[in-house]
Amino acid sequence: MSQDTVKRDRPWLMRTYSGHSSAQASNALYRTNLSRGQTGLSVAFDLPTQTGYDSDHPLARGEVGKVGVPINHIGDMEALFDQIPLDQMNTSMTINATAPWLLALYVAVAERQGVDPSTLEGTTQNDVLKEYLSRGTYIYPPVPSVRLTTDLIAYTVENIPKWNPTNVCSYHLQEAGATPTQELAYALSTAIAILDAVKDSGQVSEERFHDVVGRISFFVNAGIRFVEETCKLRAFGRMWEELTQQRYGVDNPKQRRFRYGVQVNSLGLTESQPENNVQRIVLEMLAVTLSKSSRARAIQLPAWNEALGLPRPWDQQWALRMQQVLALETDLLEYGDLFEGSHVVETKVQELIAGAKEEMARVEAQGGMVACIETGYVKSELVQSHTRRMRNIESGELQIIGVNCFQETAESPLTAGDESGIMKVDKKAEEEQIASLRSFRSNREHSKVEQALQLLRAAATDGSNIMPPSIECARAGVTTGEWSEVLREVFGEYRAPTGIDIAPLSESASEALIVVRERVRKTGKELGRPLRLLIGKPGLDGHSNGAEQIAVKARDAGFEIVYEGIRLTPSQIARAAQEEGVHLIGLSILSGSHMELIDDIFIELKKIGAPDIPVVIGGIIPEKDAKHLLQNGLKAVFTPKDMDMNSIMDAMVTIIRKAHGLDLSA
């Protein structure tokens, strides 16, 4: 048989995760990517949209358009999909706390395009439970949040039958430190919590419940240990098959199929020698493509420079071309399952299944996934796993090329030039978005807006499905902030456990840590009390993994820690620093809003008469920004290339000693 006549499997759906600045700019990017061979859209929303704020809300300052597209109302959503026919598109929306609202806007835009909403295809991530554990874009307490998830699922099964209403997302669990066993256990426990909630809600008939199971999809992570990751995906498929058949009695094999999309691991991408990220991404892609029986249905790849800042359109094209080369140039899609019959693979799969079932049993014994989020059990387990990983990098047991080994390198031409290899969002984008929002508000029919919001409040209060009044709100011109505020008033807001109250790891302290502990102890003695460090997460950035690891390490080094979790205002951070009598403020900002938020912190410290408390920052900070911040009062900038946390601790002690006029050599 010639190569021309070989039957090939259809390639997976190819996406890039994108959105920035404005709906108009993102629309241009989408149409460009589609013209280059992308076969589906994956929408990244900015943090105000994800956390239910309009672009002109005080908490949105500096965050508008930074990590995704701002969507304030139906006009923005219409601009986002201008000239993109929704009846021909498969659209994935990474949205959770505000998922019902963004789907409502999508439905309303489809209606304006003349598209029957029942024909729409795509996915809302709508997995708010993992937000309490990783990304932090939750708004309401877990129980009403699960209710919103349930409402969206029930509505789509009846009214948008081709839609994937929830995408159980283990991706961010791995980013938060989950081992493959934990990723399996917590994702499947989440699926159980959601399916049980749908069943208990009574919104879906017994006959249609199997359709709910059949529409559940997953969004997974694939790390650099691609053999183990391949086995994890095979384990996922088997465990889902067993779970849906035994727990929920699903007889139709199609409805029991483990359907998943993937973005490969961003946690392992490095700022140091970022060109190495290219081969990391390709190798990680193999984990979800090599095994035909557990091959991903959709793939989106990060760009090589994600650890540096916002990728440019060219970088996204490069990531897309990686998929296309594998799917179209190689012979991968011409063969059956390459691992069928492998004793090595089968042994590892069984090991992962056994470990995951043990952890799922522990979760169930404690009341299920929602209860384990409320008590902080799962969060603590993830923080502990992540701590082990960081300790292994510190010790050299886990080798990261360019980070803790083979660090010698020539300067990368990829990061040369004024851009430094990343795209910068124009500062005018936020101003223009706010002006557009205020113009939209002033031109609405306010009586329709008020009427729609009253219907929304009534549904939230009496337990009716939230989707119909949300769609009415979208049609009437309600904004994201107005929709969310009504639900805030009904459900309240929530602050999740931080997970940092874990026992110190049992390994003996390294020589470097012993030295740091002695400096912390000695400095505290000289100042008359133990050193106290405030870890702050200002703005809307909910990626708390780094902050948690610094808090755990600093406590291990002898610091007293003040850490209240995510989403604090600069004013709250400044006042907490003063009231707690801290010696240093350490800020963690990964959303690109560091310039605005650092300025605000300094202003607030000056207001309360505490301008001398030293401030340091950790995050994805371009070199040009770092120089500016250091010239304007910041004491240190730590970025992803600073993996040696003992050195970070030592640097912070030196900063404290300098601030108090102590001998720096001690």
How would you describe the overall organization of this protein?
This protein is an alpha/beta fold and 666 residues long. It has helices at residues 23-35, 47-50, 74-80, 99-112, 142-159, 171-175, 180-201, 206-215, 226-246, 276-287, 313-329, 343-365, 369-375, 377-395, 428-442, 446-462, 467-476, 480-491, 511-527, 545-556, 570-580, 594-607, 623-631, 645-659; strands at 13-15, 17-18, 41-44, 90-94, 121-124, 163-164, 167-169, 217-222, 260-264, 298-300, 532-536, 560-563, 584-589, 615-619, 636-638. A five-stranded parallel β-sheet has the order 1-10-9-8-7. A five-stranded parallel β-sheet has the order 2-3-4-5-6, covered by helices on one side. Strands 12-11-13-14-15 form a five-stranded parallel β-sheet, sandwiched between helices. Helix 9 links the parallel strand 8 (217-222) and strand 9 (260-264). It is globular, with a radius of gyration of 25 Å. The mean pLDDT is 93.
